[in-house]
Amino acid sequence: MPPTPRQDIIRFAAEALPREADSLQPKSVAIDRARTFSKNSYVLAALRSDIISAKFKPNARLHLKSLMACYDTSVAPVREALAVLAGVGLAISEGRRGFRVAPVSREDFLDTAAMRKLLEVSALKTSIELGSDDWVREIRRVHKTFSRISQKAGHDDPISGA
Asked: I need a surface site. Which of 8, 35, 56, 80 has the fewest CB within 10 A?
């Protein structure tokens, strides 16, 4: 008996999920200073991106003067950004000694990856259960497009401008 459209989608999703590990790789996002509302929001976005992308390594000291030069700003936006990032766990305040990047551990990464897998699989199952025939056709169309792109570019190379 041939598989139903839903079974095809489930099989496709099961094959695609292992590749989702690539999305866990750190990515650096260029922050356009002209598009931010203020110096404070620019410094916060840029510093957050630099910490997440590991430009600043875990446990590295975050020196105010270096950050001021790096982001071409005064001390106030840097201090505000550090306070916000400390509040969300990306930086650690060391009292009068300043700030450092929060440490990360293998256990933290594995915990985050496991939670993400649970959430993404659950979301995919819900999408499959609730998806209409139009949704299935759109998934197939997107899969066909990505298959052509990956055949052109190869599976290991990043695809940009596609």
From this structure: 35
